[in-house]
Amino acid sequence: MASKTAIVLGGTGAVGKALVRDLLVNGSYEKVVAIGRRPVELDSNVPQEKLVQKSVDFDNLDKYRQAFNNASDVYCCLGTTRAAAGTAENFVKIDQTYVLNSAKIIAEQNPPKDNEKLSPVHFLYCSSRGSNKDSVFLYPRSKGQTEEGLKQTGFQKVSLFHPGILIVEEPRPERRLAEAVVVNLVPSFSRFFGLSWYAPVGSVGSAMRKVGEGYNVPESKTKVFEPTGTKVNEFSNVDIDLISPHD
C-alpha cells in the first residue's frame, strides 16, 4: 500500500470527513487526495503530511482532469438531501450526476494497463440502505441508478456500501430536528432489540478504508457485472458493523 494513492470525493460531508480522518490516522496510503468544492477542515491532532487538497467545480470537471490522475482507490461520499439541494433536479445533479461524471473521468485518466480491458481503479461508493433504481421515491432511486452507472463505467472493482441511519460525529451546519431525534433514540432502541438500524459515520468510513486496503471479502459477496466484467461487492449495514464494529 505504501506506493498507493487514495482519492476521496465528498470529504466535507459527515461520512467523507470521518473517512478522510481514518485514512490519515489508520491508513497505509502514500498520499490521500481530497477532491471537493471546498477544503476538508480537520483538527490539528490529525496527521496531515500525506493529505493533498484540491478544489474543483463539479459542473466543469473537464478542467480538472489532472486532479484524478494516478488513483489507486477512489472513495466516493458525494451526496446531499432533497431539502439541502432545494429542488429534485438539483438533488439528482449533486447526488448522481456529479458522482458519475467524476467516475467517468477517473476511468479515463486511469486507463487499463497492458492487455486489460478495465481501469485498475477500485471505486468505493457510500450509497444507502434501500437503494433501488426502480423505486418511486427520489432518494433510493437516485442511489440505485448511481450504483448501476458505476457498474457500467469500466472499473476492475466497485464496492457499494449500504449503511443504515447515519449517526454523525459533528453537528451539521444546518440543524435537522429529525436527525437530533435519531441520534438520541435510535442507537439505544436498536441495541435493546438487537437490530442493525444505524451506523456511526466513523464506522462507515473505517469499513470503507479496510475494504479499500484489502479486507478479505468472502467470495460469495462478489458478483461480476457481465456487460463490463467489473467485480462488484455490496456491503449491508450488518456487514459494515462486522468489518468495523461499534458500541
From TrEMBL:
Principal place of residence:
mitochondrion
- Where does it reside? Mitochondrion outer membrane
Offer one example of a GO biological process linked to this entry.
import into nucleus
**GO cellular component terms given for this protein:** mitochondrial outer membrane
Q: How does it sit in the membrane?
A: Peripheral membrane protein
Domain NAD(P)-binding, residue spans: 10-93
InterPro entries in the record: NAD(P)-bd_dom, NAD(P)-bd_dom_sf
* Superkingdom per UniProt: Eukaryota
Q: Which family does it belong to?
A: Belongs to the FMP52 family.
Q: What is this protein called?
A: NAD(P)-binding domain-containing protein
The species is Phycomyces blakesleeanus (strain ATCC 8743b / DSM 1359 / FGSC 10004 / NBRC 33097 / NRRL 1555)
| Organism taxonomic ancestry | Eukaryota, Fungi, Fungi incertae sedis, Mucoromycota, Mucoromycotina
